[in-house]
Amino acid sequence: MKAQPTASHFINGRYVEDKAGAEMPVYYPATGEVIAVVHEATPAIIDQALSSAKAAQAQWAAMSGTERGRILRRAADIMRARNHDLSVLETLDTGKPYQETSVVDATSGADALEYFGGLAGSLTGQHIRLPDGNWAYTIREALGVCVGIGAWNYPTQIACWKGAPALACGNAMVFKPSETTPLCALKVAEILHEAGLPAGLYNVIQGRGGVGAPLVADARVNKVSLTGSVPTGRKVYAAAADGMKHVTMELGGKSPLIIFDDADLESAVSGAILGNFYSSGQVCSNGTRVFVQKGIKQAFLARLSERLQNALIGDPMDPATNFGPMVSEGQLQIVLNYIAKGQDEGARLVCGGQRLDKPGYWITPAVFADVTDSMAIAREEIFGPVMSVLDFDTEAEALARANDTEFGLAAGVFTNDLQRAHRVAEGFEAGTCYINTYNDAPVEVPFGGSKMSGVGRENSAAAIEHYSQLKSVFVRMGALEAPF
Ligand code: NDP
Q1: pTM higher than 0.85 for the full model?
Q2: Span from the CA of 36 to the centroid of ligand 1 (angstroms)
Q3: What sign has the CA pseudo-torsion 401, 407, 408, 409?
Q4: Residue whose CA is at the smallest distance from ligand 1 atom 35
Q5: What's the rounded Cα separation, in Å, for the pair 298 and 295?
Q6: What are the catalytic residues?
Q7: CA proximity to 210, closest of 27, 21, 50, 453
């Protein structure tokens, strides 16, 4: 299987190659075979991308929002029309099953382009009346050149979730995908330009962290939006602070999911499955600490084990497959280490956690029971299909333990007690909370974390605040006096 792109980078409206950059092989996670080779951006490529973005941005910002939006909405239509091909590419890049990619990745990318395309024409300032007939107004301005840096789990979606609001507000973007999944963002760039985006406004360059760092530090850059881990977030935030740049940080989590005795058992099990095993557990907002009230624990574990028998692990391109491989050998090793650590620490492995004896990066979905709060598997983000089940007695206890973490990305509660559901949601220290559901992320609703899980919000009108700034203009209608 091959998925070699036309060239490694997309700059100033066209594909660009520079073989002087180090080779980055792209592996198909289902087989481990090399499906493409791209080259890391050299300093010359980084400079080309930034200067073309800088040169194109002012004219783009001067267009009407309606015109900008029309281009984004056209790109959304093209993405939807090509959903099959884009989903196959997403599956090759990440290993996620086609059953998922065909309904989540290009489609949510298209949603973002359509949504922010629709908002672009309505971005306005305010008129503010002042005493004595004077007044002020605000202008909502683009920030300038934005850098987007992506994680490997949702390469198409991340490229669109950052690109769409940035472009809607009149910015230019330079996007660096994860080195593990470099292919999909190139297609996003291609489609945007096919839809009429002027050259230079959405550039994609490849590279490891060594390419991300100079992008963040460059004086031409006004904003940095990162999706990645907390350690990377710390570095990128600090580097951006040096230049007083705007930031959005979408970072990791170790989110709690609290299941009360009175919950609907089937829905609670569905929530735990969705919140732990979708995309083979490689989802930032996953509810990996599943607190189950003691009265329902045995029934929950029994039903969960039964339902896990329905996980179809196999060829990701087969539409029936619903559980794919890990993205890389490295990520698989991280997960295997945590499974060994969980067993060493005394947690009970109920099922799964075995590497499959075949090429590629395969592991069966793992469930640990009798997990305690201090175990590494309950404290650290694993980013793989490992569910930790913890017992609890009371609501107050569950909430306190749920919040006892440095992370604050997401949290969920399953209960049929209406007041308790809202009380617990109010008590969660997390940016995105779920009641009797898990991991929904439609474009209309803000998404992001609190505490160490991040700064800023993606999606919804809230994202506009993070890709634009306000200028205040004071107007005096009469003569102006001064003390001397
Ligand atoms: P990493 O933090 O390892 O990398 C994220 C991106 O940052 C990659 O493109 C990486 O490049 C780049 N990078 C690394 N170091 C630097 C640096 N010093 N300066 C600039 N860029 C740098 O995360 P992963 O790719 O492993 O993704 C998994 C993480 O992402 C998890 O923690 C997960 O929770 C989080 N995530 C958060 C989401 C959210 O919305 N909150 C959504 C999805 C994932 P390279 O890959 O080439 O090293």
Answers
A1: yes
A2: 21
A3: negative
A4: 228
A5: 8
A6: 162, 250, 284, 458
A7: 21
